[in-house]
Structure formats: structure tokens, C-alpha cells
Amino acid sequence: MGDRDTPTRRQFLAAGSVIGTAALAGCNGIFSGGGEETTSSTTSTGTTSTGTTSTSTSRDVDISNWRGSSPLVQDRPMPGGPSITEMPDLEGELTLYIGGGEGGLYQQLATLLQKHYPDFTVHTRYSAANQVLTEGQNGQVRADVFWANDAGSLGVVEDADLAASLDGDTTDLVPSRYHTDAWTGVAGRARAIPYNTKQFSESDVPDSIDAFTDTADLDAKMGWAPSYPAFQSFVTAMRVLEGEDATRSWLNGMQERGHGGMSQYKNEWYVSNAVADGEIGAGIANHYYTIRVISSRPNAPIDLAFTKNDAGALVDVAGAEVMKDTSNPELAQNFVHHLLSAEAQEFLATWSFAYPMIGGVDPVEQLPALSALNPPDLDLTKLANVQPTLDLLRQTGVLS
Question: Where is the composition biased (Low complexity) (predicted)?
């Protein structure tokens, strides 16, 4: 992999500090590694409102109010791209369904937007795609906007003809592979290979996911988190791209590789920490867990490698769509447009270390640019068909 065109991602930081306790508490533990991602079958009946107590009337934007508190992001340049100061005001009441993910981070961004616009109130409910579908079948979708943690959930709602077409000035901001006419990605996450830099260099890590079944290609004890939704999406992508037989062969091969097969972990935060601890030499995880490890442990011997044009290089997105039956389509469209503002994208890039979806906002400097990644050519909405993947994981003994 030494001939990769992916740029060098980072030099290890010599100094830094753990993210402040207040920031951690405010994000409901998003950096603590709990399994924040959920499947599209998970629902919650709790409804909250962010309130209307803000007295701010300024349209000036202080980027420090939107930027994360990690030492990794303190010296970032000002983001480019469209600012909320260039967009129509958000005014009125909006009902937002949030379908899993990021431990309250999406709620916080909605709250920030509300604080900026004193005449805007957003009511949030944690409800996944099946709740939207159930309401749609009864002809009473209550949401104005559905913000999902994965493209598969967005696609299910779109396929049920419950989503309206988005404004072109919104979707034009996002690369074509990360939006349709009905939904747009707002934050990306890449599958990656965290590896221990005391044991390996980047050139030691294969750039094909198929090569990992052979210890000769990477002589390392490895780990994964097969019960974790992101891992199941990755295996679903492999099944769609390569077929069930090839995916079964890969799963069996990974379990039979040297060093006693694969170490299993609860989620990919634990996988990434195990790499940093030297407990395993490499793992399979979403990219941002490694960055979170680095943020809290600046000298941790961990870095990221990426495969090319296969399921191991999958880039999935969290995204949003406007409900067709919304009673306030103009506000709903404007809200989704705001999620692609420079300020909102900076928030997502620096709090969750997600990949921004718009030009002008960079990922954290420890990551290659989104354009430098090599994801497979895949309709992301097909990732919703996870049941055959679960069956396959159980058949192969990866899941009990």
C-alpha cells in the first residue's frame, strides 16, 4: 500500500488535553464510545422541545460557538461554503424526527440553530424510519423533517413515497453519490482500518479487504465488533457488491486467520482503543473512533489506513429529508439547507469528526480529504436490507 495516492494523515501530536468534562456532558457521552449508532428498527416515544428562551437577536456568527472543543480542532481555518448569514431566517415551529446516532449531537445542532433564530422553535422526537413508515401508513406523518443516521433509513422512507423533493440549491452542494432528489447526506463516515503504529506502518496494511483473510498479508491479531450496526452495514455492502457466497467465504476466512481468529468487541470504540493499547495490531471500524482516541490520548500509537473500491472503503452518510405531508414545506426545506451551511458542517466535522458534505469545510487534519477516498460504486439505500446479513453472520458463527 506504499504506492497509495492517499495523502499522509497525521503526525502524532506531542501535546494536547482531553476534551473538557462540560463538553462531554453536553454531548451525552459521544466521545465516551458507547454504541451511539442504532438500527432503523429502533424507536423512541420521547418527545422534547428545545424551548424558546433564547433572547439573542444577532445574526453575527461566532464560529467558536459551533466548533468542537477537542485540541485537534483549535487551530482550524475558518470554514468556507455557504454561511447561515446568507440563508433566509428560520422562523416558525418545526417537528424534527431524529433516527438514531451521535448521542444527542443532532439535537444540539438543532438547539444551536434555534438560539441563532429567536423566532424559530424545533420540537425533536427520537423516532427511526419504521415510526415514519407506520405514521405514513395511517396517513398521519407528524414530522416535518426526518434526520437519519444512515442512508438506508432515508431510502426506506423515500421508497414509501413519504419524502418530498429537495430544493436543487440544497442538493447541488453535495456530491452526487451522497444524495438523491429526496434526501441529502449531511455527514459522512468512512470504513477504515485502525492499526498500531508501533507494530506496523501504513504500507504494511493491505488496500483490499479481501487480503485480510491471509495473515501473510497482515501479520497481526485483529478485532471487530460484529454486533455493531456499522459493521453490519459494511457486511451488507460486501454482500451487495460481491454476493452472499463470497461474503460467507470472507467471514469464514477472517475467523480462520492466524493469531486465533478475530477478537470480538462490543463496539468500534473498543476496537480502536484495543488497537491503541496494542491488544490487537489492527481492526475494522468507522474512521471517527480512531480520531476520538487520538483526541483523548494524543500520543496513542494509532493511525488509519483505507482500502480501495470495496466494502472496506464504504462511506455511508447521515442525512435528512423533508416529509411530503409537512404543513410548513418552506421552513422544512430551509432547515435542511441550514444543515449544509458552513457553520453546521463545521459543527459536525469538529464535534463528531464526521466527513463534511460540502466544499469549503475540511475534515479534521488527521483525515484525508473525502475526495481522496475510494469508496465502492454502491447505492447506499441498499444498506437497509440488513436481515440477510444478520442471517449470514449467524450462519457463519460470527454472531451467536
Answer: 37-58
Whether 135 and 265 map to the same domain: the answer is: no
C-beta of residue 113 within 8 angstroms of C-beta of residue 50: no
b/e map of 217-228 (b: 16 or more CB within 10 Å)?
A: ebebbbbbbbbb
In terms of DSSP H, where are the helices of 322-400? 329-339, 342-351, 387-395
What average pLDDT does the chain have? Answer: 87
Q: How far apart are CA 162 and CA 70, in angstroms?
A: 38
* Cβ atoms < 10 Å from Cβ of 7: 9
pLDDT digits (tens, 9 = 90+) for 200-217: 999 999 999 999 999 999
Q: Which three three-digit cell numbers place residue 301?
A: 500509537
Residues 229 and 288 in one domain: yes
pLDDT at 101: 66
Please, are residues 133 and 160 in contact by the beta-carbon 8 Å criterion? Answer: yes
Q: What is the CATH number of the domain that holds 274?
A: 3.40.190.10
CA neighbor of 63 nearest in space, from 366, 308, 349: 349
Q: What is the 3-state secondary structure (H, E, C) of 262-289?
A: EEECCCHHHHHHHHHHCCCCEECEEHHH
Whole-angstrom Cα distance, residue 260 to residue 253? Answer: 12
